[in-house]
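Q: Give me a protein?
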Amino acid sequence: MPATAGRRERCDLCGLPIGRSQAKQAIRGGELCFCCPGCQYVFELLSNRPEGAPTDFRKTELFKACIEAGIIPQDEADLLSQQAQTDVHDQDGVAPREGSELAHAQDLTFRVEGMWCAACARLIEEVLRKTEGILEAQVYFLSDMAQIKYLPGFLSLQDIFGRISPLGYRASLFRDSAERSKERRDLLLRLGISGFLTANVMMISFALYFGFFQELSQEAIGYLSYPIWLLSTPVVFYGGFSILKRAIFGLRCLRISMDTLISIGILSAYGYSIIQMARGSLHLYFDTASMLVTLMLLGRYIETQAKGKVSRGITELYRLASQKVRLLSDGKERWVTPDAVQPRDEFLALSDERIPLDGQVIEGQGEVDESVLTGESRPLRKGLGDEVIGGAHLLEGKLRLRVTRVGCESVLGQMIQLMQEALSKKNPTEDLADQLIRWLVPAILALAGCTIVYLRSKGVSVDETMLRAITVLVITCPCALGIATPLAKVGSIAAVRTRGILIRDPGGIERAKDINTLVLDKTGTVTKGDFSLLEVFTLGIDEKEALGRVASVEVHSEHLLARRILWAAREASLELQPTTGFEVSKGLGVKGVIGKEEVFVGNRRFMDKEGIVLAPSLEEIAESRELNGATVVFFGWQRVVQGFLAFGDSIRENVQEFMGVLRSKGIMTCLVSGDAEETTRAVAAELDVDKFFGQAIPEDKVEFIKDLQERGFRVGMVGDGMNDAAALAQADVSFALGTKSNIAQGASDINILTDDPIKVIEVLNLSALTMRIIRQNLFFALFYNALGIPLAVAGALNPLVAVLAMFASSLTVITNTLRISRRHLAQQT
């Protein structure tokens, strides 16, 4: 709710005019105004304890208005709604059967706080999947998100979150940033206290170490040992509480994770030290246990900050999607949540505000910045009839808009859906690392056990054996390995998101570095696709009559040229005639019946398919237009060609630069088009491409790519994402240009929201950088383990050094991954 500026005219609760008996209430850095103390009391009741509201009152319009205005937070409202549904379920007593489950299932994305590694995500995932009423569950460690499909009539959000909290994690709806701040404060507090106490433990331990060089009395050892124990105990059980809790619940679920290894290391060092302290021994490892906890907390804090940096672009989308809407209804303005708005509703956007929903301008003008969504840095002037994307920033002006798309259908909703899909998919390198971790954790426990057996069989003392076993457990903990690949993946997805590039399949990033051939669709990719009708050429009939007939058939087509024909017909004020029997031959042409005559419109291959012969004189004239780069479409009726339409298109401004970069990278270029061979040849010559293929239907494009692949080429395809779907699916890596309005459709690996082909170069550079960083991360993670294990078994390292080495390993991986967000991809070669 925004802060009040000046005198408010209407009550923020009921919407009635504010009179003399107004009351005010401070809330979340702003101020609310009420028409009377009664509204203020209701607000306090609902905002502090909405679950205390009577059931009948929850059904009133006032209660709904409180939700829409944000007085009752949406997550609490959802919980109340779910509770009501759960009450109904409790009367029924059974979950729906499989046959009706999917009809009632809902998708839910929420945040999970407190995950320390990829194993945490797998543990939560497993628990959720075993919960009755949850059909599917996926948990993403790097973005702190969980995505489930569940039955809202069978269990509530409280039930779902209640399954997670006993494991030591906190779940909340994504909009709630308070939980995140609370977790950061809690982590920082535990780190501060643990760091202070550990520093004191280390200082006293140094005094105790002198006992190894000169004899100390038992009384002196006791005076030093007990303070160390007292100081280390809160570090282990307060600072390390979350680690120990997750390890315990993991064991209850029969899951051995990295938390298990760390906890065994901490408790082994702490427990063995207590036994040794009771014996009056100098061999105490309280400092090791304390340092292990403190460095784990420090590593967690640094990792949290790093995750925030690499996934900032992703979380920004969720924040934009929850913007309140200034809805216009019956001439009045009121604030509502986005899910309370329907298509064709009207809303208002003022200067310096975020436009909350996709809409069409019906009144006003303004400068709009869409850079956060499309990467387009230049502000765009928007006026009557223009489309505006939800999440864009209105720099100046005032717009009245009609809602065009809401929820998952909006551009922002599609972007979120696409990024969720990308985060849920794993590339081959990530799968390999996950498989390695799965057997590495139990292998480490087995290695520690074997170390104890081997050393004791060789007569090594119990003290030395325990020291080495603890060191093995600590130094081999694969924390760095667990984040090496997924952190880089999320970093790459987030790095290009703000540049208008959406990664649909992370595997595409891994494959893009290997492509040596790029197939380019002509129309809309290397050319603007903004066709203009240059000429209507006919064989003795009236041009307007011919254009009217062609437009009457094309009105049923979705082809780009069909839209240009209809626009030209409207400009000429031509009346369209009813058409029946419409048929389309994809990539070739269309036909339909007007009156009693069959009218056909298409290219040469369509004429061949229909068995219609072109007059030599007409074909000669058409070829002359094609040699000049025009696109020619023939038309006629009653199986006689009556003429053709010639369309002009222009090459994009930066395509020459794009082609130059591809040549410098040694990538072979191919141009394919459904246009005539002569038209395609003219464009290919201007761009100096290596190969071209004209008059290609979608199936031809697929075969063209297959042929290249069979000859050993790694093929990338750049198209429009829809008409080229089959070819995009066949390519090793596929790019869809200009997909701002249909992001979630098509078959591409990478969606580029603008029409700028230079973005393809950025993806190629990103691929090379990401894979290089992943290889480096895996090397760093495995190098520390490979070097540390033999040294730990041989006794060359102590647990304290092992803790520092493990911390250094994770820190190296995190620091290396942050390079992705700092690199200028457009300039990289």
Summary: The domain at 500-527+651-767 is CATH 3.40.50.1000 (Rossmann fold).
